[in-house]
Design goal:
Length: 250
């Protein structure tokens, strides 16, 4: 064999059975070292996007991304309220850092899900676009992607369904496309999440009542004068709102 070393080198510890030596401390130490290395590697994947000095208190006040309760299957819930997100003044890079900050600092071990409320979302004001959402998702460590079980998409509307159906397989990678569960009415959400587990804003309840009395709006048959079922374009570039950040206060 050559005298060089390899990254695949390993060591073998041999203990005679008749020496009466308990091998468990040796094996436990090796196991703990291996586990420690894995934890450091996992933390590095998350830490590279975090800055301990960055202040996200302004985004926390908007409450568009919060950890709340669990669904009926034991998955912790990240609640996202689309209307609360100010897409015109938050850069894609800062949104990514904020999402990683929330996941790494608040989400406990184990599976989780997302409840996304699309009610009354306006594509120009409240959505970063599918391109940015895909970019953020792809930047996540694989371990976090695997822990995401379901995305409950509340009040999707016809346009949302069509965009995801036609472009979803291209833009939503890593199995995310198959994790989306459409929830056209709040009453269907209670099949998977107990009432009271997450806070439902009043405007979401009101929008649900409107759809209940105008059910054809969901399918584009009845007019939607307020454009309550708009779906964001998938072609937003990352710098879409750069020129507006200095001009607008939220």
């Amino acid at each position: 064999m050559s005298g060089g070393t390899s990254s695949d080198d390993f060591s073998v510890l041999v203990l005679a059975s008749d020496l009466g030596v308990d091998a468990r401390p040796f094996l436990t130490a090796q196991s703990q070292n291996h586990q420690h290395e894995q934890e450091q590697e996992s933390w590095h994947d998350c830490a590279q996007y975090l800055s301990p000095d960055e202040d996200f208190s302004d985004l926390d006040l908007l409450t568009f991304f919060r950890l709340q309760g669990s669904d009926n299957y034991g998955n912790r819930i990240f609640r996202i309220v689309g209307k609360y997100y100010p897409a015109t003044i938050v850069s894609a890079e800062r949104l990514k850092r904020y999402v990683f900050h929330k996941i790494c600092s608040e989400l406990p071990d184990g599976p989780f899900c997302i409840v996304y409320m699309h009610s009354t979302v306006q594509k120009e004001d409240n959505s970063p676009g599918l391109t940015i959402l895909r970019w953020i998702y792809e930047e996540m460590p694989g371990e976090i992607k695997d822990r995401l079980q379901t995305v409950y998409f509340i009040h999707p509307g016809l346009r949302s369904r069509l965009v995801i159906a036609t472009l979803g397989r291209l833009f939503l990678t890593g199995g995310l496309y198959w994790k989306i569960k459409y929830v056209s009415r709040l009453q269907y959400l209670w099949d998977d999440i107990k009432k009271g587990e997450i806070e439902i804003p009043e405007f979401v309840k009101s929008h649900d009542d409107v759809l209940e009395h105008r059910p054809l709006t969901d399918y584009g048959i009845e007019p939607d004068p307020f454009h309550l079922s708009e779906m964001p374009s998938a072609a937003y570039p990352f710098s879409k709102h750069e020129g507006r950040w200095a001009e607008r206060d939220y």
